[in-house]
């Protein structure tokens, strides 16, 4: 089963920063802003909005706790897309949280890369599940 839609919550003042980071790091896979039905909600995806970035008023302590606990993984079609994501993320100011490579302790064929975005520190991943290398 595939997820129909989901998203993350960020401080309202960091909304555009996170959206711009996601476009900079996932744009090579067709990921873009699709719609913004209200100023604090951005629907993103490739052909339709399936990933939402929601702005929310919060204090610094709450924002740090929420950011540390959030994780979102995007599926790649190729190892090259995983590597391109990681490279683009570091160039966009992200912190490495796991260089591209196999993660057989998750399951055989798992190849992913992890970063923490420079805006909120959210752990983003791009993964391919059927890597044969």
TrEMBL record:
Gene3D superfamilies registered for this protein in UniProt: 2,3-Dihydroxybiphenyl 1,2-Dioxygenase, domain 1
**Protein name (Swiss-Prot/TrEMBL):** Uncharacterized protein
State the organism of origin.
Hyaloscypha bicolor E
**Phylogenetic lineage:** Eukaryota, Fungi, Dikarya, Ascomycota, Pezizomycotina
């Amino acid at each position: 089963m595939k997820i129909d839609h989901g998203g993350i919550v960020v401080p309202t003042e960091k909304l555009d920063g996170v959206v711009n980071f996601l476009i900079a790091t996932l744009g090579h896979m067709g990921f873009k802003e699709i719609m913004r039905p209200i100023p604090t909600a951005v629907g993103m995806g490739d052909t339709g909005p399936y990933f939402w970035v929601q702005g929310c008023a919060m204090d610094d302590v709450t924002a740090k706790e929420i950011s540390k606990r959030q994780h979102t993984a995007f599926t790649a079609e190729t190892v090259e897309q995983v590597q391109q994501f990681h490279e683009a993320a570091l160039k966009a100011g992200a912190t490495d949280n796991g260089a591209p490579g196999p993660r057989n302790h998750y399951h055989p064929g798992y190849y992913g890369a992890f970063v923490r975005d420079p805006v909120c520190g959210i752990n983003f991943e791009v993964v391919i599940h059927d890597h044969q290398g």
